[in-house]
Design goal:
The protein is mainly alpha-helical. About 65% of the residues lie in helices and about 0% in strands. It has one domain: Alpha Horseshoe (Serine Threonine Protein Phosphatase 5, Tetratricopeptide repeat), CATH 1.25.40.
């Protein structure tokens, strides 16, 4: 899936079935469904899930917890614009899935 198609899917009531848990979590996060997003990655293994988990805690304002998850993801702790981070994460995760 390309980033444009991913963004268009946000108009649907459910994420595309083929999305990985981290991409589905970002989808739900963009729709304002933090709890649904968090449930998808909180017990998921792997660096991608940890990265999304970090983003979710940063979005929620829990910066200490976010730093922990960025470290688990082997990613630098983000501090910039949340929307820009979301876009960069979507693009990176979609590129990995291609």
């Amino acid at each position: 899936m390309r980033p444009h198609a991913y963004r268009l899917s946000l108009s649907q009531p459910e994420p595309p079935r083929a999305l990985s848990a981290p991409l589905a979590a970002l989808w739900w996060a963009k729709k304002g469904e933090w709890d649904r997003a968090h449930k998808l990655v909180q017990d998921e293994g792997g660096a991608d899930a940890a990265w999304v988990h970090a983003y979710l805690h940063r979005f929620d304002g829990d910066l200490g917890n976010a730093r922990y998850w960025y470290a688990r993801a082997r990613q630098p702790a983000a501090s910039g614009d949340l929307d820009a981070e979301w876009t960069a994460m979507v693009e990176a995760l979609l590129a990995q899935a291609a």
